[in-house]
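User: Before I run my own analysis I want an independent prediction to cross-check against. Here's the chain; please return only the structure tokens and, at the end, one sentence I can use as a sanity check.
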Amino acid sequence: MTNDSLSKVPLPGHWPADPQTDVDVSKDRIWIDGCFDFSHHGHAGAMLQARRLGKSLLVGIHSDEEIMDNKGPTVMTLKERLSPSSVSAVDACRWSTLSIPHAPYVTSLPWISHYGCYYVVHGDDITSDSGGEDCYRYVKAAGRFLVVKRTPGISTTDLVGRMLLCTKMHFIKSLTQMLSGEEGSGSVGERKRVGEEMRQRIRDYATDESGLHPGPIVLSWNASASAMEDHVAEEPGIFSTMFNGNPPKPGQRIVYVDGGFDLFSSGHIEFLRQVIQVEEANGRKSKWFGDVATEKRIADAGEDYGPAYIVAGVHDDGVINHWKGVNYPIMNIFERGLCVLQCRTLTSQYINSVIFSAPFTPTAAYLTNLPFGTPNAVYHGPTSFIPLTYDPYTGAKELKIYQQIGNHDFQNVNAGEIVQRILRSREMYEERQRAKGEKAAGEEATRRREEMERETSLMTNKAHPK
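Assistant: Structure tokens:
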């Protein structure tokens, strides 16, 4: 190991995350590290595969400075990628055990050994430092490196490319048809193979914190395009079960949230975290956490559990594009749904069910037809990005189950803000794309985006005449 690598080992008592004393090294403790810039399901997929190899998963997160020196600019700051208030995507992944900030870009044996990890896990792609050397050369030489399969078709670089080139090739018209092989490119056999691979990925993500047992229930909803897109048609629609999981337990309140969840990030996670906090505050008022109630739950169910069962509706690509225009969503419904599926909002509270293709307007007909029964609460957070011409939560308000989450520190960290960060530093990100072998079609992409933004502005002006 080089002197430079050794110099980055913290002094006793100065490790960036506890414990400060060395942990006994175990093959059940797995290390994975990375930039974990704005979240996508490829990150979660790597953590899921790593978690299945042991019983604890420690996640090292590189600093802004190390990433800039070795790879290029980050989109999200370290504070946004790893926050003390647990809104980071790493802490919000159900398969992570502990996050370690300021982990070295070149993975260090003293670091992983301090935290008791024997193996380091990484995808089957090569990651190099600024000098072109393998970032995992030291752990490979020590025989402490394991390879997992890289998630195809998704990376931070891919997503940045979608923003810079303003493409819509990633859109999915119908997720159910995509999964059955009826939508997509290639031959019938190729489409069916891709559809089955996507189904398997949803099945994998719908697991518990061990990654081995069933977790969230996965549903899809089908109705007319008008019922999905706006408030003109009020239909109960048809719910279909894609994958079974754990149903609500006795006494749990059914809580419904919905959204696009595009470029899933700290803004979404903080909203979900605050929903849980409100529900837990209600639980304390009703003595949910009292000794008698807790003992009864453990006696009846064999385990304790939280007061809320969280159901998240995820909108179709066409629905989001109808309201946001340009080439939103940057992630398609499959990618966004996986991000929501893997999410936990507090140490022991997870997303319990995901509904693909949920309507933009959760009408009374839709809400009262949910398979779990009418929700006890429908939450919505601060929205600053979609120009609405009506209130989509009228149905929830009429049912007297609507609750508003107020402003918070990360409310502006959304897809629109992330895209603007990319565009403001376009030259740096185009250079980063070129370094990864991507061709930049800058002028054409700029022209296309400006044209799309004009079209969206015209639609908004028609909806809001002065």
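Sanity check: The longest strand covers residues 26-34.
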